[in-house]
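User: Can you fold this complex?
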Amino acid sequence: MTPFTIVTAPACPLGLENVDTDQLIPARFMQTPRSQGYGGFLLHDLRRKDAGEMRKDFALNDARYAQAQIMIARTNFGCGSSREAAVYVLADAGYRCVLAPSFGDIFASNSVQNGVLPARVSAADIEILLSDPSVLAGAPITVDLAEQTVSVGNKSIAFQIRADWKQRLINGWDAVDMTRSYAKDIDAFVTKDRAERPWSQPRG
Amino acid sequence: MAGGPRTIIDKLWDAHVITTREDGDCLLWVDRHFVHEGSHHGFGQLRQRGAPVARPDLTFGTADHYVATRKGAVLDADAARMVRQLTENCAAHGVTCFGEGDARQGIAHVVAPELGLTLPGLLIVCGDSHTSTHGALGAYAFGIGASEVAHVLMTQCIWQSRPRQLRMHIDGKLGAGIGAKDMALALIAKFGTGFAQGCAIEYSGSAVQGLSVEGRLTLCNLSIESGSRLGLVAPDEVTINYLRGRPFAPAGDDFERAAEDWLALASDRDAAFDQEISMNASEIAPVVTWGVSPEQAAPITSRVPDPATLTDATRADAWRDALDYMGLHAGQAIDTIKVDRVFIGSCTNSRIEDLRAAAAILKHRRSQVPGLVSPGSRQVKQQAEQEGLDRIFIAAGLEWGGPGCSMCVGMNGDIVPAGERCASTTNRNFKGRQGKGSRTHIMSPAMVAAAAVEGHLTDARKLMEGRAP
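Assistant: Here's the predicted assembly.
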């Protein structure tokens, strides 16, 4: 996994609240092998009109944010289905970070697994970012994970992230390797647990 | 806190901790892992590493997301490949699989409880957000993503941070004709889809204890729609009686000993939660959703709300957008909204009690619109047919299908056509959830059946007189 330290890039001021993972990627695209790339499915139906042409009033379709690596959204981003493909679409479209006041739990966890930073920014600060002229103009902003700050011009905004997720993102740690380093603890747990909860094994 | 009073959430958590890191993250033991067709990303990661499944004996596969559920339906090549891949992946790794054609096949969250794979005190994961369902039996159960599926396959463990704990206390008595679905939707409508973000919920109170296991499964199923990680109900005699004799549950003396342990899982008196919320069941009316988020829901007796009454401009925009998508206008009486079709099924409401409730309304009546009834498992299907429920649905003009996720998520090709409005027993009314451009109204099985009979959303209580259940 690519470590996440500092990202400086334009941000896409999406601004929507309750963006569920069915919007991030509609279910019908999920049979696609990952090797084919998921970037084109990002917010596929939401960014288009019924007839299929791109909506001009949709931030994701705005040329100013074509190189964006940071998404700015309102509350409860990534709620709903556990589909990790909702992160694949962001990662494959070049996004490294989402700024929002809150996230769907499973989405946030999936993001960290894929090196995408789910940074919690207060609702008031999200409003500041969404109305900042330089953000809207597509000027680069900087997300610094070690410092837990978003810098826009001379403004610095703090964000929250779980301590363990921060470590994992900064180091680009692989969870499986980390877990395997605890093999002795796992064996000891299994032995003790078998005596304490004999009913936990499926019969048959 | 050692030795002090503990909640059921504390007890379940503590029993599964293998190690705690300095940053607070805990490595937890997983007792059951359910995989489905969508788990192919997880198996793919396993293959890349050349790793085996650590505990195939604790891993169970069931085909649900992509299987065909309509008579004569032919899956497209991609969907068929997804179903085949699950069977092949399970076979390659020695994992028991309830694949297509297996007598135990069905939706993971229906199959596992009915087989006794779900037990109180277990930690259960599955690559599906509605895994919270299993909390109904007193399990610590939550949905995970594909990378975590791969991690659990390889290690039988998962990293988690200790959740905030929320007790949702519902006392009082539900009115006649009102059930667990109404309870869950009323909670989300009242408190919002984000109110329990990051929490583990214990549902308690006389109204919760008064629910059958089927009802509790519906309530816990919808926990994820409130933003919580999971919801559960403490095991009681209802739980124990439900589990006795299930094929994968302990048997004989082992069962009785286990039952003692399970009953001891209940929260200790005076155990502290981070937050407690209460509600009275008598406040709850039949609820339907009118928008594109489960919190956009209201009693059937009310009107479509007006965005102009909101002070929050972002929320008002979201409501306007929802009404536009749904083709509704503010102030319209909800029980005048005409529907184009109905769907009864999904991990939320496809169990035998759900089918009985719908059949009670539909008996000797005709549906005004086409619709599909998809029982949650082969076992539910068989039992419904023994009770003659299939004949009631067919006589009403509805299609009697097979078990799977079906039209809830539309992955198998069973979709609601663009622009059509569907009264549905499912769990998500997101834009395009049941197919691109589909309009979904979520409600209880009885309410869907009533909408079928009248051709528009309607208060099912009017159609229940003299009918059981």
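The mean pLDDT of chain B is 96. Chain B touches chain A through 80 residues (CB under 8 Å).
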